[in-house]
Amino acid sequence: MSALEIAAAVRSGERSALDVVEEHLTLIEARDPGLNAYNLVTAEGARAQAAAIDAAVSAGEPVGRFAGVPLATKDNMCTRGIPTTCSSRILEGWRPPYDATVVTRLREAGAVSVGKTNLDEFAMGSSTEHSAFGPTRNPHDPSRVPGGSSGGTAASVAAGFTPLGIGSDTGGSIRQPAAFCGVVGMKPTYGVVSRYGLVALASSLDQVGPFAANVADAAALFDVIAGHDPLDSTSIRDFEPTAQAVLEAGVDGLRVGVVKELAGGSGGVPGLAADVLARTAEAVEALAAAGAVVDEVSVPSSTLGLSAYYLVMPAEASSNLARYDGIRYGLRVDGATTAEMTTATRTAGFGTEVKRRIMLGTYALSAGYCDAFYGKALKVRTMMLEDFARVYERFDVLVTPTTPTTAFELGARTQDPLTMYVNDVCTIPSNLTGHPAISVPFGVGDDGMPVGVQVLAPASHDAQTFRVAAVLEAAA
Amino acid sequence: MSGLVPCATADTPVEPALPPGWELVVGLEVHVELDTATKLFCGCANQFGAQPNTNVCPTCLGLPGSLPVMNERAVELAMILGRALGCDVNRSVMARKNYFYPDMPKDFQTTQYDQPTNTDGRLELADGFVVGIERAHIEEDTGKSVHVGGGGRINEAVYSLVDYNRAGVPLIEIVSRPDIRTIEHARNYVEELRAIVAATEVSDARMEEGSIRVDANVSVRPHGSSELRTRCEIKNINSLRSLGRAIEHEALRHVDLWTTGSGPQQQTRHWDEAAGRTTPGRSKEDAEDYRYFQEPDLVPLEPTPAVIAAIDEALPTLPAARRAALREATGADADAARLLVERGQDSLAMAAAASGADAAKVVTRLVNDLAVDDWSAVDTESFAALIKMESNGELSASQAKVVLGDLVEQGGDPADHAARRGFEAMDSTELESLLDELIVVNPAEWSRLRGGDEVDRKKMQGFFTGQIMKATRGQADGRAVAQLLAQKSV
Ligand SMILES: [Zn+2]
User: Fold this and answer.
1) Counting beta carbons within 10 angstroms of the beta carbon of residue B428, is it exposed (0 to 12), middle (13 to 18) or buried (19 or more)?
2) Domain-embedded: residue B307
3) B393 within some domain
4) Of A80, A253, A281, A303, which has fewest CB within 10 angstroms of its CB?
5) ipTM, interface predicted TM-score of the complex
């Protein structure tokens, strides 16, 4: 049953929310020990909320759009009174005194969060192997990674633990695991979904977004979480989410660009696997068959995205993660002085990848290096914005693979950070430009693992990505 | 006690005893807490003296996931002060200044760096000297640590307590150019800035509560040179008196180091009030690299020309202009003008003078006899009437002073107070007949006054004046008595 079907059944009284939640909790209990999608299952809270929804339904009171629909919440979204770990030792024992705006909105819509899902520590990674609580496994093949950093949420939706999931995407952390796990994942335009209560990785890149097993559920979830929030200064005013409304619109006459640099040709980004490229080409053909006007287009700066990203992201992260100093909350390892205590705490509390990025970012911002590194990365960002603006004069949407390959084996890339970073090459441009992008499953690779195709659109044209994704979903 | 009392008292030397040939070069960084209802980035109360950690929330505690929202009133106050200092108000952005400190919840301070709100202003001191303002930028305050045990020093303390009530309180930091050459001007600069801050109601400007904090950048150079030599930044200056002492001590230290060696090291130093000296803090070599970058959680501040025009329109008349107007209207000297504007008595003085009261008497009476906190009961009309009574001899100077005291306490009509106290005008014939009686009773004293030497004469003048005052219960006008004695004794 889809999320929307469940909600309709609960609203009509045909199904009890408590039964729905119980059924999903049972599944989690049975299968999650093998997948490790969840850092914490909040069964009691979920049951209580479901019972309240059932009571409201019998009393004839209004219940939300997602009444009784189980939801997976990435463990970097603050939940009042419920541990929020970011899969890091350093947040050990911390319970936020407040809810993220997205968490509040979803509860008000009747969605029932069943737990907090695993991620790469502080969302730094592309495989959910960099978690203090062990890796999450891919439900399609437990020897493989689910992608990351929102690997727990992606696995939860792919395993049928929850019809809906919430993730965050800084360089591809929603779309890449969605592609690896064969589900729909979408990164909204920067500022469309509130970041209030999302534990920051890189503030100018982070964006919260929906996961679902199908495009219609993802669109409905997007419509619920999108919209202005006065608590987030970068939130766009007057944004009207209309994803659900355009799902049936089709692509007749829509101008679709195929990004040359991400299509495997010479001069483009190397390392894109043949099977992934083949599925992407088939997806483009499907759009053409549905009436889209397809052409190839060059976005030269897209090849620079990876290097710019790996300066901007760690720079902002190094500052955002400074507050984990052992003084106010979370882990504290004592030392003779405040500085020694903070050093000992951070040494014990952060994992290797987090330390690596803090050091990279600190270096990139240092006096004497800032212009050469961080400053240059900002220039690339500007250049990319100009490049894409030019391209969007001629195209409504762009199509690329979501990932260079299908899901890889656990441990295959943990020894070499650079091979891990390359995973994000197709997804990073949308974070640097702040544009919306969606990953939708389109067939499988030679290994039988899911392949995701990515649809990109200009800023605030989020609905457009769902519109195209709906056509691809139907053709897949 | 506020350090912001008029300076130049006996224990605060006006000028450092810099050896001949050396010149003092000072720039000041003044932090002013903005008088907003709430903090800079959250809805917590901006309030001094509350129970520790009661005015806090996820944002000002820097909890994971929290985000700042700019307090628009703080930005407005910053722009008001900027315009009052003659600054350009620019499109500005917030930046992060990254360093670890226990009382800074995010371990970075949100401030402004390369694009501050206000740049290129000027501040004119009471004596007309002009100090350039480099910038006046918005930033957040930190919390406060209390180190328990180990003499209160952070590294020897047994434990430390942090109060985050002050964390996130809005500040404006006003950075002067290194234009100041004397200690007196350094103090005057802070006084003048405080007066502007008070006039614009940007802050309550209380130094003792830390709502104004001053750091001094001090260097010296040979007289006549235009170079800027190595400077030291002196922190922990808590009063105007400390400011003068700290600058003097530091300047002498620099002269000594230049004379005996290759000069001071660039460093931050702390003023030790008890010891009367500065002690070294961080030096340039181990200075923090703050890794400034634009705050991604906030959007640029882009005031429209209309907003700036509205601020200009609403600016009150500033102290410098008020002093000029007062001097123009009353002929008050520079000190009197400074004092009356500081007390906010300039409009009373000008109104009284405009209504025909003697301007010089108005100024004298206010300067000498209205040094009180609350003079709200004194209205222009009755004050002007009082001065007129003094001018036309209805009241002596000392009687006028007494009646002014009555006005402060009770308000009302000066003539009623004078009548109640039995202060009646005493014309010269009455005085003369009184003197004649005294001469009859004290013939020996009178002849000593007329024929004695200088000392004798002075003494006997005093005797007769005293007798007259006694007989009139102090109501006689001292000058009239002196005049009468002089006439009679010829
Ligand atoms: Zn607060």
Assistant:
1) middle
2) yes
3) yes
4) A253
5) 0.96
- The verdict on a CB contact (< 8 Å) between B69 and A315 is no
Q: How far is the CA of B54 from the centre of ligand 1 (A)?
A: 10
Spatial contact of A2 and A216, defined as CB atoms under 8 Å apart: yes
Are residue B415 and residue B434 in the same domain, yes or no? Answer: no
| Predicted TM-score of the model (pTM) | 0.88
Could you tell me the fold of the domain covering A255-302+383-475?
Answer: Amidase signature (AS) enzymes (3.90.1300)
Give yes or no: A149 in active site: yes
**Is B16 inside a domain boundary?**
no
CA angle A140, A142, A145 (to 5 degrees): 90
pLDDT of residue B3: 34
Confirm whether B15 is domain-assigned: no
For the stretch A271-318, pLDDT in tens is 899 999 999 999 999 999 999 999 999 999 988 999 999 999 999 999
The CA distance from A49 to A43, in Å, is 10
Whether B52 contacts chain A with CB within 8 A: no
Chain A, residues 311-340, CB within 8 A of chain B, namely: 315-316, 318-319, 322-323, 325, 327-329, 337-339
Query: Is the separation of the CB atoms in A276 and A450 below 8 Å?
Result: no
Q: Please give the residue range of the domain that contains residue B354.
A: 319-420
Q: In the numeric block, which tokens belong to residue B182?
A: 């004397």
Residue B474 has pLDDT above 80, yes or no: no
- Regarding whether B220 and B89 lie in a shared domain, the answer is yes
- Topology (CATH level 3) of domain A3-245: Amidase signature (AS) enzymes (3.90.1300)
Nearest CA to A98 out of B56, B371, B330 is that of: B56
Q: Is the pLDDT of residue A1 over 70?
A: yes
Same domain, B380 and B480: no
Across the interface, whether the CB atoms of B65 and A203 are under 8 A apart is answered: no
| Known catalytic residue at A173 | yes
Residues in chain B with CB shorter than 8 Å from the CB of A232 are 67
List Cα–Cα distances, A437 to A155, A427, A458, A464, in angstroms: 20, 8, 9, 9
